[in-house]
Structures are given as C-alpha cells and as structure tokens.
Amino acid sequence: MVAWASSLGTALTNVTLNSGYRMIWSSGWRLPTAAEGNYETNNEFIHLYSAELGNITFSDVNNVFQPGYGLHHTGPFQNLQSASYWSSTESQYQNDEAWTYDLLNGLSGTTLMESDLDFLGIAVRSGQLIDDSPVLGPPPVPEAAPVPEPSTVLLLGGGIAGLAFVRRKKKK
C-alpha cells in the first residue's frame, strides 16, 4: 500500500480551488499517519474522521461508549467507506505489523502487513493553501460633510431679533 501511494507521483494534482487561492505541494502522495491510541493529535486519520468530517468515535478519551458513532459524514470525499484503511505507520512493537484505522467505529489497531484481509487506502499529500485574494480591511470612513445651517434657524433668529428691535423701540 505504501508503494501504491508513493507511486502516484504528481498525478491527481489537478485540484480546482476558489478564485484567489493556490496550492503549494510540499510532498508526494503517501498513506496517512496513524499512532497508538485513538486520541493522538498526530494521527491524521483521527483528525480527518473527527475534526474535519465531524464523526463520532466508538468511545471517548475515557473509553466510554458514545451513541451515534460511525462514519455518517463524508464531506467532499466520494466513495469513503465504513471499512479499515492502511496507514503509513509501522508498529513500534511488531516489525511485521502496521497501524490501521477503522472508519466504521473510528478506532486504530495494528494488523499484519502481509495480511490477506481486505483493507482500503487513502492517498494524502501535504501542502499549503495560499490565499492570494486581496486583503479586505475595514471599510473606509467617509469624511464628514459640513452641516448646512437650516433656514429655520435663520428665520427664528430673524424673528427674535425683530421682536427685540420692536420692543426696544417701544421703550424709547
């Protein structure tokens, strides 16, 4: 399986991205990593299964059963199956075993690499998504326009001045 993934070379790189984005590939195709335990942060299968796709594993970090577990969300993947998948991680305890990940229940395990069991493979490729779209900052603040003096203020002021003039004239 490892040879199959690495033999893909630069194939399958025709990825359509939204306008303003581009991809810089940093490696060739490979099988995802897995690790001992079902909650390791360096396990690419767990990250895909739980964090990216939002699926629930059979048991939580305290080994308590979780209702609703299983592969219910496949995201943009086509033909993702509730089955066991090979990883690129060999067992540190047994040289003839490799870690696998079961998408049926979201759990890792080890299996003999020369096993006759039918396991599937997912090819992954590391890269960095670059956002080349223009940076949009806060909208520009419009300049304050001068406020014209309303004509009502002029009329009111003129009326008060006229009354004051008439009153002053009557006093004389």
Commentary on this structure:
It is a single chain. The protein is of the alpha+beta class. It has helices spanning 2-6, 44-52, 151-171, and strands spanning 21-25, 84-90, 97-102, 107-112, 127-131. The strands form 2 sheets. A 3-stranded antiparallel β-sheet has the order 2-3-4, with no helix packed on it. Strands 1-5 form a two-stranded antiparallel ribbon. The longest helix has 21 residues, at 151-171.
Comma- or semicolon-separated keywords:
172 residues, alpha+beta, three-stranded antiparallel beta sheet, 5 strands, elongated
- Per DSSP, what share of the residues sits in E-state strands of 2 or more residues? 15-25%
What would the average pLDDT be, to the nearest integer?
A: 79
Rg over CA atoms? 35 Å
Q: Ranges with pLDDT <50 over ≥5 residues?
A: none
| Principal-axes shape call | elongated
SSE order, as H and E?
Answer: HEHEEEEH
Number of strands: 5
* Spatial order of strands in the largest sheet: 2-3-4
Helix content: 10-25%
Number of helices: 3
Largest sheet: 3 strands, antiparallel
Distance between the termini: 114 Å
User: Which class best fits the helix and strand makeup?
Assistant: alpha+beta
